Queue: 4 jobs
Job 1
Amino acid sequence: MSKIETTINIKITPNTIERAKKIRLMIFDVDGVLTDGRLFFGDDGQEYKAFHSKDGLGMKMLMNSGVEIAIITARKSELVKHRMDNLGIHRLYQGQSNKVPALLDIATEMKLSLEEIAYIGDDIIDLPVMVRVGLAIAVADSHNSLFKHAHWVTENKGGCGAAREACDMIMEAQNTLQPFIDKSIDTGSNIAN
């Protein structure tokens, strides 16, 4: 069977590629990145959010390639905990209005330099982390203030495949995306998302 050749169709500067090659941990914001940022509440006050399955698969692929994943979010939600448990993501920091202490805790715990960490965000609350990490990514519909601090901007909006796009970009830079695709074709293996 012939292999499917893939190259993701995104504009990446050589500097961004070099930064992405060094990444050992990818940190995601939730609202506006893994979701479209809208919040839904039932009559009982229960919060609901929609997560894109492509983002979940991308996160699992990235973990499978050897890059760890963490979540730092300002809000606190059982729904987010449930989704992260479902994906096998255990570094979950919720209720973090100041995200820098969580970033530094994770870096210390994992013995990583900030240069080895990527972060993807969408709003002003994410800037203090973005200016500290080795690879700062903004989703396409981020607040305008993020764009001048981002090393790369996704083409997709938050909650609509932006996280997957970021995962693919890092895997492509680290030469792990094509081998993953080839293995999937050869073995028919699948990672549930």
Job 2
Amino acid sequence: MKTFLLLDFGASRVKTAVLSDDKLFDIRDYEPVKPCVFAQNRFEVDLFGLKNQFLSILKDYSKEYNIDIVLICSEMHGFALLNNNNEPESNYISWKDERCLEKIEGVSSLDLLKQKLKNKFFEKTGMKERACYPVFNLFHMIREDAFKHTSKGCIKGEIKVVSLPEWLACAGGKSLNIAHCTMSAGLGFYNIRTKSFDEEIISAVTASSNVSVTFNRSVENIAPAGFIEMNGKSISIYTGVGDHQCALYGAGLKDNCLSLNLGTGSQAALIGSFDSSNEKRPYFDSKILTVITHIPSGRAFNYYKEMLEKTNPEIDFWKELSSVSLDDINKSDLNINLAVFQSAWNYGRCGEILAFDSSKHSIKNYFASIMKSYINQYFKAIETLVSSNSVNQRFSVILSGGVAKKLPVIKEYFTKFSDFDVIVTNSEYDETLEGLKKLSACII
């Protein structure tokens, strides 16, 4: 019987567990590595800091358990640049980084690459153009270097674009240079139809530069991606998978089910097809997810939390939000726009609070209005997904993620005001860890 170390490198924390004899135990939480570059439109993390954290976690567990295999899921849309020897040429650039919004010679890199691709990006990748995607931020880095005409920190020659799990697979110095398609797709270069990196996108990014872009080979199966020697034995590091897909797998997403995964970010998803007009992502077992991503969630809550703390620091934001009842929501009258980040679904006039009446304003009304606006965005997302996919009239909605567990009024509201069968995952573990546990069954 193999012993697995499971790791979820999420946006807000790192979750770990041991899996042996089909049981999860010794679950731990770690703070994420803090950014080394944190400024407007910039969010970078030191690659060696991430590697050292990974090795430290593995060493700690290896003192107590005979670890055979490491399984990883990770936040998507972050990237790093490596040379041919898998040595860093950049920091880890997070999905929170949006440098491509900055203008060079009067035009942002996001807009310029969209023009160069002539609206083919969605057709090829299944994703709508967003400032957080590596393809746009790498394009900006190449443009920035060319504009500055400097060799300091310059991107040149052949570089490899990798996701976080691909970098971690190099930790032992024995990488097999492969990646799972759920992570490859998140880079923004991957053609979801041909299941390969798209030459037209690559050419658009690197044209008129001295940069050549390569990638690790993308695979659909869970396979060894690297090895590390520890305590006299070789431990296999398997291909890391996307945390969204992993959470859905752990939550038990099936045909005729719709998932609402509510975490730092949130997504609505169902198992769909290429015919859908919505965004698409690779899933497991060669299936396709039809999705709406970047729906405002925990990160947006924290934005309003920080805004409130500036004027009323003694208020406990999450305590107040957790105390909101169905009756409070029904009485609330503020229309609060949670799409405060440019990458967010339905981003428009960020941070609006509409229908404000000072005579009715209260802390309770403020929090209840946040909850109403939060929940209503998912009704719109469900309507959008269902209308463009072949879904039977009766379907189930699976609520998963930390926010769904922290705020039970969400299920109460859906149950009372919808015709859906509403299911909240009741596992005592995070859905991502459950997903990794299920994926371990694919390993012989």
Job 3
Amino acid sequence: MLLMQRTKPLPAGKMDTLRTLSVCLVFLLPLLSSAQNDACELSASPAGCVCSGPNVVCTGYWPTYRELHSGDIDSKLESLTITNTTKTNLIKCESVFGTLTNLRKLDLSNNQINFTRPRSFSSICFPNLEQLVLDDNALRLSAHTTFKSLDRLRELHLNNALYRNQSVSEQVTHTFIKSSMPSLEEIMLNDNLLGDLSSSTFNFNLSSGSSPLSRIHLRNSRLGMINTNLFEVETLPNLSFIDLSMNSITGLPIENLESFDKFSSALTINLTGNPLTCNCNLKDFVVWLQSNDTEVTVVDQEKLNCSMDSIVHGGKRIIDLDPMELKCGHIQNTDMDEQMKTSYILLIAVLSIIGLLALVILFMRRKEIIKLCNQMKQATKETFDTHHTSYVYSDITQARRETPEHSAVDV
């Protein structure tokens, strides 16, 4: 009882203060915990870089070999990002990076790297590398062993990363054929001027003969056609997604469609933004797209429209087309036949209108026309009579001069 009597309730102002402090602690504790987790876990960090946990980000600064191996960086660093530098070439990774045994992600995007040497990226330096990002550079893949034995690499990002010349497609093919990336699951080649790729582009140098590659990104790479053997289930059995959007593909032949249907796993294809020409060459694709037999998923298939090169079907949704309207002649194009027919009809209509207007004008001014015709007739007659009389008179005069009697009189 005495204890209860001595305990007095706190004033209202102090109670409000306690409540406010409690609420602040509720919100501050997670932030403090997060800040503690984001604290640098490395004993040292390269100058000009920011360290957070086991990760280092260098913007506008390329760390030296010594800096990457000071303290415990070489054994604890998990993610290294170096961006916005003037670095132009990469020699052997041993000389640039050394061995970073725990590195999982290496991001060298948005630099000026344009030349690589053999083993610029190798398991010698990056035995546990899982993600390599080289976006927004100008790489010349002259060394076919640029990506040598990256056994644990799962993602390779080469978006807008390749030097733009005519042989870029061959460089990519030769580089991949010589590379050994047995764990690669996703490759990104968006925004490169690849052109048409060889059928062996994704046939990596694998001892098992098949690749775990499941996602291939080729958006905006100027692909005009898809090689029949580019995506084969024998070499890419795990393929589940192909991004072919924003290219120059005008159609897909039956051979491509049959290759897609061979994949037992669910395959998704993105074809949006391509100038699909709706003529006889697209008939197989339209039938395939409307068929219920295929398990392939086409992204936004209801948004695939005919290009404006198709005079008859320009702008129409491909999913709504009747394949029978895409008939093929021996050497003629259905669209051109329809175009010529329309032109002939318009020409006949215009000529008919002109003829009708001419008849109306003639009828309305018939009196003036008749009067004009009579005047022309009279003028012609008078001219003829005058000429005829003059001609006859000349003949008579000439005859009189030639007679002997007329000559004697003149003498």
Job 4
Amino acid sequence: MTQLRKAHMKKPPKKSSPAGKRKPGLAGEMKQAASHSRQAKYVLRLYVSGSTLKSSLAVENIKRVCEQHLKNRYNLEVIDIYQQAKLARDEQIVAVPTLIKRLPLPLR
């Protein structure tokens, strides 16, 4: 085999990630997003199911995170899937609580 052919067949080196580096959670993502754009206005929708304990905790948690990282730069809309089932269907919500970021783009 010629050297040219051997060089062509070599696999590119694998990219290694730093040990212990984890994907950030919601708070980490919010902090990272806030640092990228201090002027961006966030439009969020939180889908919940009635006034259950899990729904109440989800509302409290997202409000706390938003106040800490996006103070005065967010609009949070809480949607009860029992009262507004069409919105949940349109967004294809299959589990609650679910948080949807409407703005800024890109949507996730």
